[in-house]
Structures are given as structure tokens and as C-alpha cells.
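Extended Data, panel c. Modelled sequence:
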Amino acid sequence: MKRSFFYLVIAVATLLASTTARADLGFGFNLGIATPNEYINDIYNKDKVFSKGGNPLKHFYDASKLGYQLGVKLRLPMSENATFIGGIAWARFPETDIDVRDPDDENKVVLTLGTNQNVIPISAGVNYYLFNSTIGLYGTGELTYNLISNSVDYKKGDINIPIANSSTDSRMGFGIGAGFDLNLPSLFTINLEGRYNFTNLIGKVDAEKTKTYATLTLGIYFGGHEKQ
């Protein structure tokens, strides 16, 4: 995993060095909503992780809830139609509950845990423009190195189970989507972008489900145009 991230950094650095001389490096910020799939809050990546006295206890997750994403991105034009993009973001999903139930009576909840999930993608990719003047329309794709962190708190219950109260996983993934630019000359660019993100395609452990989330963000960028 670390080697894959190292290769990604080298490729990005080479691309930046080859294009900076003829382009205007731009930067921007974006903010929007993040909609997770049902596995984003499967923090233990296993069906049965809770046990007492050697006996497994079944657990049930609440549905993942709508979250939000904040991001910072760079833009570096490579040609009239293609722009390199790179950045870092923070997607956070609100607290959900895990109910641990008695194996002899699934209606009896013996422990409730509260969990929060955070995904921090470090990304590099390309926007490819169908047209790009005052209005720009593009498709986008990027590779991501994702830090997936979880926090767990005891909320209620009459048993104590030794579990990890916080954990951070690193996974490789990618995002695909489309976006719209409104370029205001000599000022800034307003951006609207939708993206579908796969967080853990490379580096998964046994029984780990594919975790995805969709984002819709509104952003503002300064610079990032071909030099004339």
C-alpha cells in the first residue's frame, strides 16, 4: 500500500514538472454533500467481531446517514481539453449506532455503540473538457489514497467487550464523475461537480465490503488556465 502511494506521488511530481512552465497553476475550495453506501459504517469489516465467553454475538448497524465533504484542490492545464487535478478532502458521516444483541433473543439489545466515520482522500487525476470557454463541461477521473478513520463510543449496555475504540485504515481507490465550470474572466471560476467514489478497491482485508459514497460539491477556483 505504501509503495502504491509512493508511485502515485512520483507520477504526480513528474506531471507537474512537465507542465508548470506553460500553464497557470490554480487552486480552489469546495463544499458539498456526501451520500454513503450501506457498508461505509462497517468499521470492523467482519460479520462477527463481538463475542463473550467465546460465543459470537450478532450485531446490527443503523443505516449510514447523509454526510458532507470539504476539499482543497489544485488545477494545472495540460492541454486545451485536459487539466491535471490534485488535492485533499475530508468526508464525514454522522453518528450511527451498532446494536449488539443476545444470540438467544435477538430482540434483546445487550450493548449499543455509537460510531463516526471519516474518509480523507488524497487524490490525483484529470478533468477532460468537452468544451471550455466561459462555460466548461467535463468528465473527471482520479486515483485516491484514502485514510478511513473510525471512532467508537459506548452508549449503553450491561456488558463490556474489548474492542478498538478508534482505528484508521488506508486503502487505494478512485473517483469518477462530471462537472460544470462557469468562468468569470479575471475573477474566478464557479464549479459544480458530481462524483462517485470507491474508497477501498485495493488493500481490502478478508470479508471487507466495497465502500463507496457519492458527492455533489460547489466550489470556487482561482487561476488554472492555459498561458497565452
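Residues 183 and 189 are 4 Å apart (CA to CA). This feature is highlighted in the accompanying rendering.
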